[in-house]
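MOLECULE: protein
FOLLOWS: sequence and fold
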Amino acid sequence: MTASPPRKDAVRNRQRIIEIGRTLVADGTPIQLNEVARAAGVGVATVYRHFPTPQALIEAVSVDGLEALIRAAERAVRQDDPWTAFRDFLVGVVDAQLLDVALSSVLSTPTATLPGTAHLLDELSSLFDKLFVRVRAAGLLAPGITLADMTPLMCGVAFSARMHADSQQQQAAAGRHYLDVVLNGIRTR
């Protein structure tokens, strides 16, 4: 027995809820599902049926950004120069986090709430593992730098850039500067 496709109104409601979530995340407003329901013009049960927790909604907001990072990681894996591939991908990660605040939350959370998000994060992690192993094998990382160091470092760079700059342009410049500092610190001399 196959499941019937979702009703058009259910698809529309889900998309409206995600758009409200995206606006709230971008504004830095904490997600309260009852308020999301009111803003979306749907019942509270409708919101909870699609997104049982605020984190689930944040994950749904981040899907486009995660998919873009996966495509960037796939391109990086195909690059010849291990350091350039590694650096360029990390620049993309920081830029993406500064453009999409939901990404920082999803990338820094130990476990995903939604199975689809977990799958995307696993795929992204697998690709980044390849980049990390390749740059490590090329002898380009300082001793003691581990794969586990990278997520907190990248989230920290994005957080610092967001906290110490006002405009998006200033945040991007600060993010690049802080990332350069980190990369200079982890690269073999």
Observations:
- The longest helix spans residues 54-78.
